[in-house]
């Protein structure tokens, strides 16, 4: 969010859309790669929808072509998109990977999560239940 706010202050909306679209396409491809890996490593788990592997492999071929073409034609936009993705690495290490955090850090993370949930109306606060009213 901080990187997006800085870009919005410095650049224009179309630049931000270009950065985010590169990030989206990169995430779509990584998701499809994950689907193929799970089909190969864990073939017996339940899947409500199962498609022929030719479809995701074909998608990945086109995805790789578009990604390589994007990197070639607009390396600065792709580089900034990758930097935006990498800004999440410290957040991951502080919030998820670091297991034995001090209680003050846990309280700060919980309060920021609750504040973000209330701000965006995405999840009921932890103290309440949806059907209580």
From TrEMBL:
Gene3D superfamilies registered for this protein in UniProt: Amino acid/polyamine transporter I (1.20.1740.10)
Species in which this protein is naturally found: Herpetotheres cachinnans
Listed transmembrane segments: 16-39, 51-73, 79-98
Biological process according to GO: D-alanine transmembrane transport; D-serine transmembrane transport
Name the UniProt record assigns to this protein: AAA1 protein
Key words, A-Z: Membrane, Transmembrane, Transmembrane helix
InterPro entries (alphabetical): AminoAcid_Transporter
GO MF annotation, one: neutral L-amino acid transmembrane transporter activity
């Amino acid at each position: 969010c901080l990187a997006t706010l800085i870009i919005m202050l410095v650049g224009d909306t179309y630049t931000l859309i270009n950065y985010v679209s590169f990030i989206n396409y990169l995430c779509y491809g990584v998701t499809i790669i994950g689907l193929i890996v799970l089909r190969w490593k864990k073939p017996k788990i339940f899947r409500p929808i199962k498609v022929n592997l030719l479809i995701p492999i074909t998608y990945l071929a086109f995805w790789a072509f578009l990604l390589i073409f994007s990197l070639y034609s607009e390396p600065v936009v792709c580089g900034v998109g990758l930097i935006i993705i990498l800004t999440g690495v410290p957040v991951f290490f502080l919030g998820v990977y670091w297991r034995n955090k001090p209680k003050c850090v846990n309280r700060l993370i919980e309060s920021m999560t609750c504040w973000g949930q209330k701000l965006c109306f995405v999840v009921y606060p932890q103290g309440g239940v949806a059907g209580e009213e």
